[in-house]
Amino acid sequence: MAATSLMSRLAAWLLQPVHSCSLCPRPFHLAAVPDEAVVISGRKLAQQIKQEVRQEVEEWVASGDKRPHLSMILVGESSASHSYVLNKTRAAADRRICNAVSPDKDADGFHVINAGQMCLDQYSMLPATPWGVWEIIRRTDIPTLGKNVVVAGRSKSVEMPIAMLLHTDGAHERPGGDATVTISHRYTPKEQLKKHTILADIVISAAGVRQKAGYITPVPGGVGPMAVAMLMKNTIMAGRGGSHL
Questions:
Q1: Would you place residue 6 in the very low, low, confident or very high pLDDT band (cuts 50, 70, 90)?
Q2: The Tetrahydrofolate dehydrogenase/cyclohydrolase catalytic domain covers which part of the protein (predicted)?
């Protein structure tokens, strides 16, 4: 097990230029292809969040506080574990390690207290990838209230938190999407899955078909950049000792 400081990476990320977009018929992060789904650019949304984070950091530092510092604990010697963005779930697979970190400093949102608060619709550190998916939906103005959603998968670090964020009450402390959510997994009969997806307004899955979807996130450039952006958001909130607004 080794500990690696990501301060230099965080600093470089915060100092990258933000490119503005001119006004166009569609929101800046959407692109349409004839007879295919509208492509949601996670990279462009992440740039928007990056600008928000940079402003928060500068205000935080200008008020006399220390610049936020992000550190990572790596579990094992797997080369995949050394790429946080590509495989942060495996890097934090040991729950004893997750729970050894203070929940207020848990930028991954994997601590049992943060997981419990999320399930209770309370403010908490949210896992970066599910929060990134939720922000894509929210910032693209895709309606979720009363909609049928199918989430393909049941991992505790990605799909289950996505389901929690989408189905919970929008009037609660940590507002949710007020959707009706169905969770499918490898034991869901194919015929049942087909019925659920036909009825669904939104399907969240790692595999998409452009000709069948209204909106789709590309790979690469979809959820990945958003997960990194939300990790930076969590870092700022951890530095402040607070939680999601």
A1: very low
A2: 40-94
